[in-house]
Fold these 3 entries.
Entry 1:
Amino acid sequence: MMSDCLTEDTKAIILLCGVFGKDHSEKPLSLTEYSSLVRWLIEVKMRPGDLLQQENITEASIGSDIDKQRLESLLGRGVQLGFAVEEWERNGIWIISRSDTDYPARYKKHLKDKSPPLLFGAGNRSLLKGGGLGIVGSRNVDQTGESFTRQVAEFCANNHMPVVSGGARGVDQISMTAALEAGGVTIGILAENLLKKSVERSAHHAIADGRLLLLSPYHPHARFTVGAAMGRNKLIYAMSDYGLVVSAEHKKGGTWAGAEEELKRKNAVPVFVRTGDDVPQGNSPLLDLGAIAWPDSIDRSNFRQLLHDLAVDARDNRAKQHSGLFGFQAARETVAAEEPLLTTELMEEKTVIAAPEPVVKAEAQKPDCPTSIYQAVLPIILNQLDNPTTVEKLAETLNVNKTQLNAWLKKAVDENKIIQLSKPESYQKAESGIQV
């Protein structure tokens, strides 16, 4: 019999996506397949738990294009699940799904519909809120890198910042152990064998003290695979306020791949990297991808504020490098990324949430832009108007919406800073225009 601690939604998600028991005749749904199923559930205003009713499976199969027999077989594993959950709970392992209220909000915000459908955990559930510093690096780290890792982990502990890492040999274990020994808290995102890790003596004591959370998107007995390790990397960054790469091989290995993936993400967390003469070859190239050099000296008592200030400075410098309209557009994209989307995380709350009204972009709704934005973009426009230029060409060059560009041009014409020409219709900077 399945645990009463699991919601109907979570039971259904484990049955569909979980691995347990010895029967592997039907392959659990992949993240892509499950997301397809969820999109259908949203459309018909149903929840995962509704699939536990036999009469809904045929319609779900048609709507999600997933074989009906496969869905029936997966959802019919209730007895096996009951035994598995009993074993997990007996060993202190709990399960949450994207439908549960304590599922990490950081994953839903950062990864959206790529967030894991299931999470297995052991330890302090209050740490699911995340935060702190995600520390990653090679399994084979030299003594300098080990000393650096220990020192940073101790800084985190002294400043009440969680250390988030992957639990693997090398940098991961060093950072987690050092933080715990210094009295801090640690979140371990595991790619393998959560059950075995959770009962190790050091982990057992830290869990009992409420200072350790072990978390994994893979079943508690999962063995190591390269794919699982790579998938874990994004979860480390998503759980953290900042990331730190201690050591990375150049364009090789999971540490490099994880950092590169995060740095290319639109809503990336700030990623720091250890620099200097004695760091691995992969570290410095990460700076070219947008990583931030770790400071040479740190005031232990002001550690948290220092990371914040460095991250803000790096963000501002990037904005200056892509200044003018491009900076304004990036800011709009950042705001848009934070708006609620009709994705799996919305459907999987405790109540079905209706699709939000379409967001009307500022330029379409109110062409008259705020003065501060107009003043910021006007010099950039004028730079392009030494010769007559059409709206189409200017919009393409500056990569902006024509509706908003027309509003700016009209305002500049009214101010006699730009001249509107005809045959063909175009614009040119007036002699009295701003000189840039």
Note: The CA atoms of residues 200 and 206 lie 10 Å apart.
Entry 2:
Amino acid sequence: MKSFAHYLKDYDLRTFSGTTFYGNGSSNELPLVANCAGLTVAEIEHTHSNDKGRLDYYLVYVMAEKMQLYCENGWQNLSVGNIFVIPPNTPYKYRCESVGASFLWVHFTGNNVKEILERYGISILPAIDKTAIVNNVSARFQKLFEGFARNDAYRTYDLSALLDRLLIEIGRSVKKKETERASLSKSIRFINESYATQIKIPDLAKMENMCMTAYNLQFKKQMGMSPTKYIIKLRTDNAMELLRTTNMTIKEIGAICGYADGNFFRKTFKRVTGCSPLEYRERFSLLQY
């Protein structure tokens, strides 16, 4: 499998805006305009960066692993089915960590791109979407490639329609994947079993094959609070139970609930409950003294 690319030549868009295009441009004459598209297969390990960004949108669909994308939280590992969209004038950096890393891509512009992506549920960086592993998306890319090969007076309009169908299929696949992973069962089970240990949110996101931004959004949507607040709630609930039902010292209870620093435990407990651990025990202890 080798890399290839298709481009919309300059004369195909000249009738719309009088601008010369060589695969990177913006246009406001149609809702969607496909500037170029193709397949990239890494022949060597390499990093690609663009410090100024492009004039158009850049969509990447990961076909083979061993790729990373640089986001706000550092390098993020990508897996098969990941998709990300880089908006215009946005610096970006990604790297292929091994020979054979591959991805499908399309650069596009138009007067209604942002609204279309929102309508179909496709995120823009820093979020990274995950699609269900199906052949429909790659098949739609193939249709788009075939559209570039039809060099006639209707090609720009044809490509616009084919790109729209591709985005619809991506949105459908993203929605299907979100439904599959909506329970976040792996990470929530881990939190429930290990909340007294040191838990890192990036590790939880990795369990669900999600970037941190998407994980935090999905977690809050499902649980009604952030992962950090959920962990604190579990620790506090357990501390309250121990304060009511045992004679353990406050320092011991804090350590059992995940707080090695007793002072930090007291401050966190009071911030959450409105009273100190000692005050809580005095009010609600079930033990007879």
Note: The longest helix spans residues 155-181.
Entry 3:
Amino acid sequence: MTICLLAVCFACSAVLATVYAVTLKPIQAAAAEKTVSAIRAVVPSFRGEPVKGSIRYDGKNIGYYALEVTDSTRAYAIESQVTSGFNGVLSIMVGITPEGTISGTSALVCSETPGLGAKCTEEAFYRQFVGFDPSRKVLKVRKDGGDVDAITAATITSRAYCDALTQAIDVFHIINRGGQDNE
């Protein structure tokens, strides 16, 4: 009985290892394509290849991509993540121009309620951030004294989205100052 159990375990392990080896590269390629698509959605006018970087902010590593816009200027695509959404994690890609204006946003992970908070992934909501200048406008929902139109019946998600955008703007300023940490 022990030998049969070991043989079954060995066979299952071999099948699992084979499936992992066969699917690893396609999964990695799909993830890379999703990232590039998100970068192109938030900063459509860059040239060359994105240069990946990471910065420590508020106790966690935040990934970003430096994107050449002209010979002397760079825009950034920053992966911002907050856990203050209604149903948990909200992760977005935020494009920021060299001047510090938001050029676009794209949801990467959204676990919000379908039909309510999940509307943050719809163009009707995220379009309002294109050209948003945080130095001139307040990045909070109108209910809290800001300039952002919240999703009806999903104020918590709207606030979380604003928090993620604020995080990305803070990271942008740290990168531009040449800093590495904001703990």
Note: Residues 87 and 112 are 5 Å apart (CA to CA).
